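At this stage, I put together a protein sequence along with its fold in token form, as given directly below:
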Amino acid sequence: MRMLSKLVTGAVAAATVAGLSAGTALADPPKGVTPAPASVVSVGAQTQQNLFDSLAVNWDKAHPKKTQLYTWDALNSAGADNNIATKKGCKAIVRPNGASPGITSLAANIKIGSHFCIDIARSSRAEKSTDPTGLSFVPFAFDSVSYASISKGSNAPANLTTKQLQRIYSCTATKWNQVGGKSTATIHPLLAQAGAGTVTFFLAAIGVDTPGKCVSEPNTLEENQGLSAVFKGKNARNEIIPFSTGDWIAQAYHSAKCLNGSCTAVKGVTCKPKKGQNAFGCADNGVLKLNKINGTSPVTGTGSKATLNAHFSSIFIRTLYNVVRTAKTKDKIPAYLEQFVGAKGLFCSNETLIKDYGFLPDPACGS
């Protein structure tokens, strides 16, 4: 946490608009492009997908004769699951929506010729004992997770403790006045789709192995998004949901507004970034705001000065990972991926872009 504090202190001074440009807010390989077998593709967590999109586009443009890098988002541009052939010649699979599905797909070791169909799994959670063997979780960047509620008219307190969140998600507290709120209304705790790393991390942080029966987990509710109709329904005032701080910062302060209320594609575009805004991702935090945990705010500063709060409750600060197949090297990273996920590779050498997407570089990146 001391190292994170130092990073936050210099974040505002170091941040610039470098790496930001007007461009498409969609992802996946460009239209009409099917990744070659020798290219490198990532799948998995939604949390850092927009940052990966930007890194990939910048790399491919600057290095047209080198190994090309592509990302497959957790959902397609229509906001839905679909089958994808990750590389030319690979059989179509269900699009991995979240960290766990991405890790499982990577571990399947499906190949086309001498090349793997998936090379990197994006993970917004740490390794679990139940994960497949033969994988290395390579540190990438820092993020944190808080709980979000609607910004206007919510009955949720603006601050909850770890214990209160545990009681809410285990359903031993079902009314707001049982956890410091003024209302006697029934709490409606929400979780995003199964397999989301943000959900796994949050539940572990509050000490809940299995959510109680009062917790709603609709399949249509994607992590780190506040545009679902559920947040405008009859229970909206009483809903809370875990949300990535980094994603919220990027959405609220560095992204273009959506072209429509559901932030789905209109003629292939979801939003139109202006100069100085992130090229990927839109302001799909929607009606949600972040709240404090244990009396500490997840964000410090506003606008272009907003960044992760180093003094946020420490158990809610997390590391984002690049998951790769374990190699017989000192850092356990396959040689062909060193240029991307190694300590001196693409992902670890773009600190400004990492900050533009709401996160902070990890000094252990690539180790």
Summary: The chain has two domains: 2-141+321-361, 144-316. The radius of gyration is 20 Å. The helical segments are 2-14, 49-62, 99-107, 162-169, 197-206, 245-253, 338-341, 351-356. The chain is about 20% helix and 20% strand.
